[in-house]
Amino acid sequence: xxxxxxxxxxxxxxxxxxxxxxxxxxxxxxxxxxxxxxxxxxxxxxxxxxxxxxxxxxxxxxxxxxxxxxxxxxxxxxxxxxxxxxxxxxxxxxxxxxxxxxxxxxxxxxxxxxxxxxxxxxxxxxxxxxxxxxxxxxxxxxxxxxxxxxxxxxxxxxxxxxxxxxxxxxxxxxxxxxxxxxxxxxxxxxxxxxxxxxxxxxxxxxxxxxxxxxxxxxxxxxxxxxxxxxxxxxxxxxxxxx
Length: 242
Hints:
Blueprint: E1 2-6, H1 13-26, E2 30-33, H2 44-54, H3 62-68, H4 70-74, H5 78-90, H6 93-100, E3 105-108, E4 111-114, H7 131-140, E5 145-148, E6 154-159, E7 164-167, E8 172-175, E9 181-186, E10 199-205, E11 210-216, H8 221-230, H9 234-238
Parallel strand pairs: 1-2, 4-5, 5-9
Antiparallel strand pairs: 1-10, 3-4, 6-7, 6-9, 8-11, 10-11
C-alpha cells in the first residue's frame, strides 16, 4: 500500500491542489495530513474545506490549536501571532469546529502520524529534541515508522537499535529497513523553509519499504498577491520564492 504524507499546507491552496494532482498521477492508496493547514497563507478556509471534502485523515497542528486556544496563540512568535490574528477572521466556524475535533496523532499499521514530535506533540520540534529525548520517544512508541512535520524541512532520523543517525531527506527514492526505526519529516507543501521552494511531500510503500520525497512545481504568484492583499505579514510571501 502506498501512503502519501503531506504537511504544513499553511493556507496555500494552489500548492495543495498541485500536490493533490500529483498524488492522483502517482496512484496513492491513502493520504494523511500532518496538520498546520491554516495560517501564513491566504486561503486557509479553502484548504480546510478541501481537506474535509476529500476526507483526508488529519492530525492537529499547533496553528490549528491556536485557532481555538488563546494560550497556544500567546506562545507564538511575532510573525505567527500577527498572521494568526488575521487568519482567525478569515476562517469559518466550521473550520474552527473541525480543528477542535482533530486528534493529536493517527496510526495505520506500523505507521504513526503526528504534527510535531512523537508520541503525540503538536508543539515540539523534532530537530530540537536531544538524542536521548528522541531515542526515548522512538523506543516508547509502538510504531516504528513515525511521520512528522512542523519544521517545514525534510529530514530523517534512523535508529538501527544501537545508533541514531540524522540527515536531510534526499529527493527521490530511498530504501528503508523493516528492522530499523524511523522519524521522517515530510517537509512543507505550502511554506517551505529550504532553499528549494517547490511544494514537498513524501510517499511510503509499506510493502517495499521504499520512501520517496517528491518536489512539485506550482505558480506561487496568485498566493503571494493574496497575502499582500489581505495584509498578512510580508515574510509569508517572501518564503514562497527564492
